Amino acid sequence: MAAFPSTIIILLFFNLNLLSSAYLLVHHLNHNDHNYHHSRPILQANNSGCSLFMGSWVHDDSYPVYDSSACPVIDPDFNCQMYGRPDSDYLKYRWQPANCELPRFNGLQFLEKMKGKTVMFVGDSLGRNQWESLICLTWSSVPRVATQVIRAYPLSTFKFLDYDVTLSYYKAQYLVDIDNVGGRRVLKLEDISENARAWTGVDVLVFNTGHWWSHTGATQGWDVMESGGSMYQDMDRMVAMETAVRTWGRWVDKNIDTTKTRVFFQSFSPTHYNPSEWSGSANAKSCYGETAPVSASVFSGVYPNEMKVVDAVLKEMQTPVYLLDITTLSAMRKDAHPSIYSGDTSTGQKSNPNGTPDCTHWCLPGLPDTWNQLFYTALFF
């Protein structure tokens, strides 16, 4: 199996006074304190360094890259245009990093460089959101190539047969295993062996976790937790998450051959249920009705506890893991959620738009396309 070329990558921090958002500064400085073993790319623009994850959203009429009707893999949950979203400006924003240009995604180049390889997204439905986006972006460049799709649980695959490229999604909301023991779902915080069987030998792995750790009641994905040989009805959720992510980190350090496999971790994807987080109007109650991003000049946000957990684990790992740090740039996109415009009609969303909107996932086309543009940049530039 061909190894990826090794590259020495240096991250430069520059002209912090040019960043208008105080939150961006705090977020940057928090990360600068960490002695990460992973690195971020530098693109050259007038001989200056580029930090990909700090910048602003700019309107660009050349977007979107594809039309939802031309990509049949999009789940109803993410297909906002099909399910009646009346506005389209949210499709026409491009992420502009500070002081450089982000390479545009090239599906043909992606397939040629990844020939014979597999990319697997592992995690919750935000990983599925990104997986479907990558399929659509790539397919839009080569719409006539032979493909094969297999939807299954927990592993779904999409193959570009002419290039022998496989894009996969493995559902593992908590990363660690869930076993059925005596009719109870046991979340095994220190066991990942069952899930990890599917990850062995994959060329590029993209992990995420976060949202399911706060679920309770009927939406909770487990009945009891197991840690240190003991069963728990519940525990501090961030403590549980950190235990699980450390289990994942140990598996990566023990099992990943970095000459054959690249490992990415997708940072926490923010929600938009609380307008006070983006200085929303007094009448706003959620992301419903939002049609434009938050300006960087007025943006104020929080650094999610879930990311503090991930940061703590990544900085202690021996294996290089590239952090796709999409939290801040995504937090600006209050306009990019399905809201009530999805295939989920059973909850009466349209009759009560402020009651049950989806302000967690993202429309396709939409924000996850930018996540994949950044992923593409990290892979090849």
Order of helices and strands: HEEHEHEEEEEHEEEHEHEHH
How many structural domains? 1
Number of contiguous helices: 8
Q: Give me the count of strands.
A: 13
Structural class: alpha/beta
Which topology does CATH recognise? Rossmann fold
| Order of adjacent strands in the largest pleated sheet | 4-5-6-3-9-12-13
Round the Cα radius of gyration to an integer and report it. 20 Å
Report the CATH C-level class: Alpha Beta
What would the principal axes of the Cα set say about the shape? globular
Strand % is 15-25%
Short summary:
With 381 residues, this protein is of the alpha/beta class. 23% of the residues lie in helices and 17% in strands. It comes from Ambrosia artemisiifolia.
